[in-house]
Design a protein that fits this description.
Helix content is about 35%, strand content about 20%. By secondary structure, it is an alpha/beta fold.
Length: about 500
């Protein structure tokens, strides 16, 4: 076992100036070579954490250069904790992240819950332990932040490297990839962080596990707020609050919901609705404003002010994004433990979970930590321990996304009047209290023992009282179509 472990320090709101500008500390070198495929948020964060834990890192990316597309996502507090080990990232995360208030509306424009700060669940610990704010990030800025930190360490993403296959050589203790030019690259462990379209499933699962449509698609965009403010009515409707806060509005309607948010510098809106078969999974395929307006014309009582807002979007600025899905797959690693999936390659999320980026970052922290704890001679065990620690939690977060979406799309007027808070997304303390590095350190030996003896391991990073069981989207879609709630056993709030 490795003897030098970098222990986590408490994340506080009053980090010292010295800590923020100190160099990141690196653990003793392990000699473990890690090849990461995919330079998205999950892949870059894996490279950073593997470097910090003392591993040798190489990062491949199929794109020809840095990818500056995307709109917004939330980075949860469990992921933000990892920045305590990265002084520059901790500082930039505070500076770049938005902290909007939230408000909820019916699709006709009627206020259900007026603007207010995020309310953490009532069963949470003491007030001092609760997150001080929300970390809402513009993906291009967050991506550049991580990439710049990686480059500062001397680790360069290798662009224009398209992986077409994965393999492992158990006897040699190596995993590897095949590039489109036929060349091969190997390492002690290969991380498939190459998204929903990963080529790793044939090796990991022994078969192709095709992603399928979740049944929903999103019109989505983000653009400079100056374009929206040209329309005086839009400018008046989407003013900042008197306290300077912006408001992230969630509009709910019949089998649809909309997020619309005017921040200090950007305008963003997303409409989730039934997939009509025309959406694609690409940031490069834009759709026309007229196509969005054709959809909103079918939403009864849709306010004209929202159509005016949609019309302020720059031409070719709207993406019609198909929400792809794979049912929870407990097998994230190859039989020999030399290739492991991470982020969207291992687990897809729908946006209403609010957890996609967060869980990818948690994956990165957990995997890098487990590799250090296992050491170079025990890479396969370390990979298997990591998967065991992560699968149940991620499966819960995936299911939570469907439960949140169901509450947006199926809530009845009477129920809404009786309990407006039913609209609020569930975001229990079991999600944001979690510390993936500390959890790996505390659990590693126990899980490794369970894997050796066959004894069952029960995770504690899931909703209290919940007993994990397999589930699939085919169980949930009929409930959504019938307007029935998705039952969540245990305390998810």
């Amino acid at each position: 076992m490795a003897s030098h472990i970098s222990q986590p320090q408490p994340l506080t709101n009053d980090s010292s100036e010295d800590r923020l500008f100190a160099e990141p500390e690196r653990c003793q070198l392990t000699g473990i070579s890690v090849l990461i495929v995919g330079a998205g948020v999950g892949g870059i964060m894996t490279a950073l954490e593997c470097w910090r834990q003392g591993h040798e890192v190489r990062l491949l990316e199929r794109s020809s250069g840095p990818v500056g597309t995307g709109d917004f996502f939330t980075v949860g507090f469990s992921a933000v904790k990892s920045f305590r080990n990265w002084p520059q990232l901790a500082k930039l995360n505070e500076e770049l992240a938005y902290d909007p208030w939230m408000a909820f509306y019916k699709h006709i424009g009627e206020v259900v819950i007026p603007p207010g700060p995020m309310n953490w669940d009532v069963g949470a610990p003491e007030e001092k332990d609760r997150p001080a704010r929300i970390y809402r990030h513009h993906r291009p800025k967050f991506y550049r932040m991580l990439l710049a930190q990686l480059e500062e360490l001397g680790v360069k993403a290798e662009f224009s490297h398209r992986v077409v296959d994965y393999y492992e050589e158990t006897a040699a203790g190596k995993g590897g990839v095949v590039l489109d030019n036929g060349s091969k690259i190997d390492a002690d462990v290969v991380v498939a962080a190459d998204g929903v379209g990963t080529k790793s499933f044939s090796l990991v699962a022994g078969r192709k596990v095709e992603a399928r449509s979740s049944g929903y698609a999103i019109f989505r965009t983000a653009y400079p707020v100056k374009y929206a403010l040209v329309d005086s009515q839009v400018a008046e409707r989407f003013k900042l609050l008197d306290n300077g806060k912006s408001v992230n509005e969630i509009w709910v309607g019949p089998d649809m919901h909309m997020f619309i948010w005017r921040s200090e510098d950007l305008m963003s809106w997303l409409i989730t609705r039934k997939d009509d078969g025309l959406a694609t999974e690409s940031w490069h395929d834009s759709t026309k404003i007229e196509d969005v307006l054709k959809y909103t014309a079918q939403v009864p009582g849709w306010p004209e002010i929202m159509n005016r807002t949609i019309r302020t979007t720059p031409e070719d600025g709207i993406i019609d994004w198909k929400l792809m899905w794979r049912d929870p797959q407990p097998q994230w690693a190859s039989p020999g433990g030399r290739v492991v999936q991470l982020g969207d390659a291992a687990h897809t999320f729908i946006p209403s979970s609010g957890n996609g980026a967060t869980q990818a970052i948690e994956d990165a922290v957990s995997l890098a930590t487990c590799l250090r704890l296992g050491g170079k001679d025990h890479v396969p065990i370390a990979v298997k321990v990591h998967v065991k620690l992560r699968y149940d939690r991620v499966s819960c977060c995936q299911k939570l996304g469907f439960a949140n979406q169901e509450s947006y799309h199926s809530v009845e007027k009477a129920a809404l009047a009786a309990n407006p808070n039913a609209l609020k997304p569930r975001y229990g303390s079991w999600i944001w209290k979690h510390d993936p590095e500390q959890y790996a350190i505390e659990s590693y030996e126990k899980v490794a023992g369970c894997l050796e003896t066959g004894e069952e391991w029960m995770n504690t990073n899931i909703p209290p009282g919940y007993v994990p069981r397999p589930w699939s989207i085919d169980e949930l879609i009929p409930l959504q179509e019938q307007g029935k709630p998705i039952e969540l056993d245990g305390n998810w709030d």
